[in-house]
Amino acid sequence: MGEVTLETIAYAKLMLHAAKYPSCAVTGILLADGTNIRDGAKNQDLNIVDAIPLFHHSHYLSPMAEIALTQIDTMAQADNRIIAGYYAACENFRDNTVEKCPGQKIAEKIAELFPSAVFIVIDNKKVMKHLDSPAIKVHSYNEGKWKPKETSTILYQQSYVLETVSYLLQALVYKDLVDFDNYLDDLTLDWTNLGIEKVIASINASNSIEREYIEERVSDKENDY
User: Fold this and answer.
1) CB neighbour list of residue 54: distance below 8 Å, 6 or more residues apart
2) Cβ(140)–Cβ(30) under 8 Å?
3) Quick one: average pLDDT of 98-116?
4) Are 17 and 180 in contact (CB under 8 A)?
5) Neighbours of 93 (CB within 10 A)
6) Distance separating alpha carbons of residues 114 and 196, to the nearest angstrom
7) For residue 208, what pLDDT is reported?
8) Does this model's pTM top 0.85?
9) What is the DSSP letter of 89?
């Protein structure tokens, strides 16, 4: 089974979307880096680089989904990315299975076009301001069903992803997240959430500098001995 790597931006948007609408089901699209992707192949390694929040109340309006997917596909192609999956959080706090989530038809259509697609289900019970474990379950499409992937095949691009997303949740950054429902209500809003991406990039840069400083101090002390 292919490995799935999530970059901090993608994981953060999943958590922020769920946190913004804790009493609603939420759904969105997953984008992967298109480099080295083979059309039609199954079980490819995926690097999920972004997530596009779709809906928190328009799950069953197919025209809205078609409009969103068309715009996302155009944007993705321009950035050498591909639509590689779907994510959802169930409305009921205790539900965390694909069968209970909305948008399964959209997810299956994505898998039909891209056999290596994944479906990420957000585990509502694990979404908290201090994340101590990944609050997601990743599934691949096999024999007409979404089946859980082995946890050993789920990787994270940055080691400090939980720390970064915890900070975003504590800072209430989810209030600034825009999904496609919000965009349809106000076309001036940025449904790509570039503002949040800039915040994450700034945090990641700070973490990198801090870690480099710590590593240098450790190296200096070792040389002193």
Assistant:
1) 26, 27, 28, 29, 65, 68, 103, 179, 180, 181
2) no
3) 93
4) no
5) 12
6) 28
7) 61
8) yes
9) E
